[in-house]
Amino acid sequence: MNVIFESQIGEIKSGSLTSNFTRSEFMSLAQRLFGSINGMKFLIKGKQIKLENDNDFNRYKNYFSNDCVIKTAKAMISGYPPLNQLISEISLEAAAAFSTVNKTSSNVQCSTCMESKLCIQFSCSECSKSNILCATCAYRNFKTNDLTFMCISCNKKVDYNRIFTNSQSFKRKYSTLQDMYDMCRNIDCQICRCGEFHVNETLFSKQSCSRCARWFCFFCNKTWDDTLMTNNKYTCHNNCTYENATTYEEVPINHSTKIRETLPNRRTCPECKTLGCYGGASKMHTCLNCRHQFCFICLRPQSKCSYNSDKECKLLSQTYGIFPKSTD
User: Fold this and answer.
1) Inside any domain, residue 93
2) Which of 87, 140, 207, 301 has its CA 20 to 30 A from that of 195?
3) Cα dihedral value 107, 109, 110, 112, nearest 10
4) What is the CA radius of gyration of the chain?
5) Mutual orientation of helices 168-183 and 83-99 as an angle, nearest 10°?
């Protein structure tokens, strides 16, 4: 199995592992490639590989495959380039990348501009409908949707591996950007305003960016102010992101039930962890991000919570533990 290691400056190193490799073999390979690996972290598919013992390490072996890419990291600084630099490079190279994408052998009608041209054609994995776009319209789709290609039929995100098959350099940079976004779904990951990516192993809020030296709250990214903030785990207590996502104020239910007259004014979706607010209707809520339907009181799916009179519908609190970590 070939394994590719990529540093924050884009340096590539590779080596081989046997199909039934062990933690010791992985560490030996890393040491051959990098020398000392003290203080180094290794990230695969948005997760930090644990090297402390065999049991923890084996949890991550399923993420490995031939030619998989492992990002290298050190302490608070991840093995990623600054976000703003990466976005700038991808934006500049995107038009050229779309021009090299495989196209139809003859002119067909572009679904967007309706002109007859050589087009990019593929089926969406979500709705199975065909996308037929010329390079110009495909590039516009990509730029308009914040460097994400969206299906023109169902407006769902399209896997970039289905499109960028020829431009390996662009694909590698875009893969790094997606890794950064995936990592930032973890509560212990953050991108400073300067674009530097960080992993916080202490989980205390007051942190200093190693690139721009700004002291900031790791969780809400606001510049640190000792008069307003407190250095606690997961929150600075100054209108902080994850604290807001796990707390609430009770407000009246417009259509009150026999069980309760009030419910939380905000909740974090149990599925995608997106914060949503009470819409002023019933206690049932549809997440605007993933469309998951759940009860704002007990957090159970709509199918498991009676709409109006469920004696088991008890107010459930949410904690910081609902958010994933890069080490999970």
Assistant:
1) no
2) 140
3) 160
4) 23
5) 140
Instruction: Look at residue 327 and tell me if it is in a domain.
Output: no
Residues spanned by the domain of 265: 247-322
Structural domain includes residue 43: yes
Q: What global pTM score does this model have? A: 0.65
Q: Which two tokens stand for residue 287?
A: 């997440």
| CB distance 279 to 258 below 8 Å | no
Same domain for 234 and 177: yes
Task: With beta carbons less than 8 A apart as the criterion, state whether 295 and 305 touch.
Answer: yes
- The answer to whether residue 68 sits within a structural domain is yes
Domain total for the chain?
A: 4
Alpha helices in 188-274 (DSSP H): 241-246
Q: List the chain residues with pLDDT less than 70.
A: 8-10, 39, 73-82, 255-259, 281, 306-312
* Same domain flag for 36 and 17: yes
Taking 3-state DSSP, the helix, strand and coil percentages for the chain, each rounded to the nearest 5, stand at 25, 25, 55
Domain co-membership, 318 together with 267: yes
